[in-house]
Amino acid sequence: MNAIEIHDLHKGFEGFSLKDVSFSVPQGTVMGFVGENGAGKSTTIKCMLNLVKKEYGDILLFNKDHVEHEQSIKKDIGVVFDELHVPETLTATQLDKIMKKVFKTWDTNYYFERLAQFNVPKKKKIKELSRGMRMKLSIALALSHHPKLLILDEPTSGLDPIIRDEILDLFLAFMQDETHSILFSSHITSDLEKIADHITLIHNGEILLSESKDALLYEYGIFKGSLEEVNELPEHAIIRKRNGVFGIEALVLKKEVNEIFKLERPSIEDIMLFFVKGCV
Ligand SMILES: Nc1ncnc2c1ncn2[C@@H]1O[C@H](COP(=O)(O)OP(=O)(O)OP(=O)(O)O)[C@@H](O)[C@H]1O
């Protein structure tokens, strides 16, 4: 089963549109949703959550239409945005009382255990918490009704590497249950490299690729050389080319290239740059 299935999603704003966005997130996997600023990640996520009305296209969450079954679906979803959208004068303890009324499955013990684990003070007002603490509070809030799907919109942006690592560990712990799934939007590609099973790249409102991370990292290679050397590569092996510091760089399909060409292993960031900035 797919936790998320999006087909031909379209949403237009003045000067920007999501164009036929399609991808799916199999249950039990983490999808890294990557793209530069303004690529359309948050708009896609907001359409999924029906916070922004789509123009057309189908969105299925747990095989159910996201609008028709909105109420029942949302019980099984935890959402983390890059900011905590609750009144700043509230404390974590006060939020517990509110969340109890929102979710029947709200687990107060589990919530306070997470706060203790993350060292988030219970009695401080949100405005007095550091950005890292707010994000951890936001994650505790998203987890404590025991969702099956986490939708994370830049949950690690603006955080230092140590806190980011701790937060990634929390998500990995969440994934120990094989019925759980995560959609993780980020432009911190190293975070996605650690946690994602699949990568979807969006650029200017269009999906440029949606593939298994291992396939991307192990099936692609980078060849660096002069224009003449790059021209010796079989044409069908070349995915994208771009100007490098000392010549031309080509992203190639490893299996289509003779071993005499020395290839470097790409990172997700390299692949993203080739697709966004390179040419065919
Ligand atoms: N409510 C809105 N009204 C008009 N334009 C909008 C609205 N929401 C988003 N946009 C535009 O849609 C485009 C995509 O924005 P979006 O927030 O989806 O990108 P993003 O990939 O999440 O970027 P970032 O990584 O910076 O958060 C941007 O050009 C943005 O200005």
Automatic annotation (TrEMBL):
GO molecular function, a single term: ATP binding
ABC transporter domain location: 1-229
Pfam family name, one: ABC_tran
Keywords linked to the UniProt accession: ATP-binding, Nucleotide-binding, Transport
PANTHER family with a match to the protein in the record: ABC TRANSPORTER ATP-BINDING COMPONENT, ABC TRANSPORTER ATP-BINDING PROTEIN ALBC-RELATED
Name the UniProt record assigns to this protein: ABC-2 type transport system ATP-binding protein
Originating organism: Lysinibacillus fusiformis
